[in-house]
Structure formats: structure tokens, C-alpha cells
Specification:
alpha/beta; TIM Barrel; globular; 339 residues
Length: 339
């Protein structure tokens, strides 16, 4: 018995020391400790342009991997476009893809506001949208309500209007859930910080969170771009992790709220781009160009933190079609073989 106790004390001591070593190691990293590992079925897709079902088939062939869901955005130019985009819905109907939809909170060029939405004045629009989706067999769609609400280019930019944004979001979710057959998943979707002066207006991103009852997934859109200075691929990804509202923050926030985590959009940046070694300084947005390092870093991070869904932005300067960005295309193919 004494020998067994001595052995167990020795084992316990080794475990404690090992835990301390791991803790010190993680504390010295720029990334937070991984959330507890568990089995997860990861899904991958790409945005290939509005209503472009055939384009999704094409990129699946290019990458040598099937796309497991479709992703598209409703027309944000009018209320009719937002809640009655029947053409777009029918483009995807019956194609066999679960859908992730960008749902604008407000149309452009209209006398609308988050504050008015917070009163419930727009609830009927979203009831109508829910009914159309359910009737099309898409009642289990994933909805990115007011995506990138920290981006001032959208009419639903929420900077400095946290209370109105939260109240309006809750109205939208409550309204859509009332529709019979609705089983939507609602995604709270920010764009990472450090991409422009709007950061100062936003303040604490957590103050814009509508609450666990109203959110199923927390997410972040991530592009390989910076504002003013692009420091090179390695430093750039470190910045993406460690900015006040970057990927490290997303991991911690998702863990605290016990929510799944997704990256609905990731892709190459816009604007002048740096050589592989970087850096480059220009007014406005700057990027890393055809950057396989960024792709590899994103997939490594997604695997480490068991990101639920990941979608590449195959459009514009980020496209890999027609021979564009060949190094990025090669990196995507390589990473998808073991995603």
C-alpha cells in the first residue's frame, strides 16, 4: 500500500508540473489556449457571386472538394429586395445545399434607421421573409442578420448605437421565429477590427451582442488587408489574431457564451499589395495580394479552434477563377484535403 501511494504521488507531481509547463507555454503565445477538443463536422463553401449556383460547382471542381453548403446575399437596395427576393431564392431551391444567407437589416437610400427598427416598425418585413424561406423548403437556413455591422459602408452600421442595434436584432429574430416551420440559425457576424477609423466609433463589440437567446453562432469575416500599412504576411496574421477585436477575442467570446464559431467570409484583400516579404504603406486599404500564407494560417487556426463553417470569398480581387491568384488556389486545395 505504501508503495502504491508513493507511485501515485509521483504521478500526480508529474501531472502538475506538466500542467504548469503547458500553462506557461500557452501564456507566452499570441493565441489563447485552445477550447476543449471535441468531434466536429466542419463545413466549407465559397461565395461566387449572386445566384451563381453553377459557379459553386465550378469552384468545387477547381479545389477538388465538394462544397457542403451554399452562401448568398439578399438585395440590399430596397425592402422588396431584402424580404421578397424570390428570384434569388429560386436559384438555390432544390439544389441540395443547406443555405447561409446574408440578410440586410436596412435598405440603402431609404428613410430608415436602427432606432426605428428597435420599435418593431419593420417586423412585418421579416415575417414575410421567413414565410418565403419556409415555403421554399429553406426554413432551416442560417441567417447572417446585419452582417459586418461594424462596417460603416452599410446602412445598418451600428457604431455608437448598441442599444438600438440589439433591440432591433431581437425584434427580427422574434418575428421570424413566429412563422410556422421556421428553424433558422441566427449568426452574429462582425468584421475583424483594424481596417479603418470606424473602430473608434464602435467601442466594446460585446455591447452589441443581442444575448444568447437570440444568437446561435458567433462569427467574424476576415480578409488579408490592413488600413494604411501592410506589414508582411507573418506579422499581418499575428495582427489579425491579437487586435482588440480580432480572432483571439472571437475565441474567448464564443467560449464564454458557449456558442459555435464560424468564418462566413475569408479572402484576399483589396488595394495595393505588398511583396511576399512586405511591408507596404499606402493611404487606405492595403493587402498581401496572392497570399498562400494567409490561407494556411486561417486553416490552421480553424482546425485548432474547431470552427464550424468556413467560406472563401471567391470574388473580385480574391477570386481564384481563370488563373487568378494561383498560389492561393494551390494553398486552398492543399488545406482542404485535411480540413
Amino acid at each position: 500500500m505504501l508503495k502504491k501511494r508513493w507511485v501515485w504521488r509521483l504521478v500526480l507531481s508529474v501531472v502538475v508540473v506538466a500542467a504548469l509547463v503547458v500553462g506557461v507555454s500557452l501564456a507566452g503565445r499570441s493565441t489563447p489556449a485552445p477550447r476543449p477538443a471535441k468531434p466536429v463536422d466542419r463545413d466549407f463553401s465559397a461565395y461566387v457571386g449572386v445566384g451563381n449556383y453553377s459557379g459553386l460547382t465550378t469552384i468545387a471542381s477547381t479545389l477538388g472538394q465538394p462544397m457542403t453548403y451554399g452562401t448568398d446575399c439578399f438585395d440590399d437596395r430596397s425592402w422588396e429586395g431584402i424580404v421578397n427576393d424570390v428570384w434569388l431564392i429560386h436559384r438555390w431551391k432544390g439544389k441540395g445545399y443547406p443555405m447561409v444567407w446574408c440578410v440586410p437589416m436596412l435598405p440603402f437610400g431609404n428613410e430608415t434607421s436602427l432606432a426605428i427598427g428597435a420599435t418593431g416598425a419593420y417586423d412585418t418585413y421579416f415575417v414575410h421573409l421567413a414565410r418565403i424561406l419556409v415555403s421554399a423548403g429553406m426554413g432551416a437556413s442560417t441567417l447572417r442578420i446585419g452582417w459586418e455591422f461594424n462596417n460603416p459602408k452599410y446602412p445598418w452600421f451600428a457604431g455608437g448605437q448598441a442599444a438600438a442595434f440589439v433591440a432591433y436584432w431581437r425584434h427580427i429574430v422574434d418575428s421570424m421565429r413566429l412563422v410556422q416551420g421556421a428553424r433558422f440559425n441566427f449568426v452574429w457576424n462582425v468584421s475583424r477590427s483594424g481596417q479603418g477609423p470606424a473602430d473608434a466609433t464602435m467601442g466594446n463589440y460585446a455591447s452589441y451582442y443581442p444575448g444568447d437567446k437570440y444568437v446561435d453562432v458567433v462569427s467574424m469575416d476576415v480578409y488579408d488587408q490592413a488600413f494604411g500599412t501592410y506589414p508582411g504576411a507573418t506579422v499581418q496574421f499575428e495582427n489579425i489574431l491579437t487586435l482588440p477585436w480580432g480572432l483571439n477575442w472571437l475565441v474567448s467570446f464564443a467560449g464564454a457564451h458557449r456558442k459555435k464559431m464560424s468564418i462566413p467570409e475569408f479572402g484576399l484583400g483589396t488595394g495595393p499589395y505588398a511583396p511576399a516579404s512586405g511591408p507596404i504603406t499606402q493611404p487606405g486599404l492595403v493587402s498581401g495580394g496572392d497570399d498562400p500564407t494567409f490561407v494556411t494560417d486561417m486553416f490552421n487556426w480553424a482546425r485548432l479552434y474547431y470552427v464550424d463553417t468556413l467560406a472563401y470569398w471567391d470574388y473580385g480581387s480574391s477570386s481564384i477563377e481563370n488563373g487568378q491568384n494561383p498560389q492561393t488556389a494551390a494553398a486552398l486545395r492543399a488545406e482542404l484535403t485535411h480540413f
